[in-house]
Amino acid sequence: MSQMVAIITTFFRVMLLLVCIACLISHSRSHSLRVGGAINIFGRFGYLSISMRVVPRNDLDKWIFREPIVDVFKNVTENKRIEGKSENELLHDDFHMEFCDDVTQLLQAYFREFKIDRLDKPWRAFTASWTEVTIAKNLGLNVTYVNGDHCYVLVRLSKPRVVASLTKDFTPQSARFNEAVKSQASFLTAGNSASIHNFIRNFGSHYVASYVTGNSLYQVLVYTPKAYNVLKNRLQRENTGLSSLSSSEMTSLFSPWHAEHLGSVLAASGNPLVYEWASKELQLSAPPEHHARKRRSAPTSYISLLKLHDNPHLLSSLAPLMKNEALLKLKLTALAHVFEDEKTRNWFLSIIDNNLKLWELNM
Hints:
The chain is of the alpha+beta class. Helices cover 36% and strands 20% of the residues. The N and C termini lie far apart (54 Å). α1 crosses α5 (179-187).
């Protein structure tokens, strides 16, 4: 008799848990990016650029984030800061330039501000599915420069609009989880892979610890290894970055007369108004000395993002166009501390680690 009571009790506990899970998911799952929300990175590993606006897209919708996200914590508080409440606020001359020996380093540089706990190469979560044609399109390059013996310089100017993070007093060890999350976690045991995978499908693998949204302009310059090393050594020797270059050096070193190829100036948001502005305002003409000895294939004018450098007038003109339209930074932390039992927690992390390695190898 007591055994029958135990079976019935367990049955009703499981049914209650399923109802709680269904209610939590239906009420809290949405596509609104928020700190503390959990996502399943395995659901779209290698394809996250489909559900997070990190590169230009052809659609006209205004979404930034459309990955399913679930609230797993109770009463999460966040630090949220709105940068430049006035769209006419001056855009700071904050250029980031990275030297990349190959395409892999270029992709790594582009996704430098995206951190995924337990994943050594977070850019792979976005780019593992990208073909050479896709890489060329997303980085504004001619596809012939994506393979072969080429080196790259990534130039980027970002404008954050919203900066959000969990408060400093938040710790996953002391966080309060929603009842449905705690209930399913309590049923999991170390060694049961299926139960872990089911938990991840319901509640996610990682939660959002912080993010930054806004917009960025970027351009990739392609160099031969020889020209690239000369330029890299020149800037590293001075150790002062672009400030060590004169105006004429700036125009020359980052022009078609030193670079093999100048990629298009792109906006992470893909906003056509930004492209229209760039095509008009970022035109540069070749210095007179180059006209006489220019390569036959080199243009007499070109578009360069570096025209914005040390140019307050252009920066002021651009600022109103740099709206809150793209994801610039993201930090995801593994959802491990929902498991109070250390053995189960370590088992969860081992499943995360193994699956991440498998995805990286198989994509």
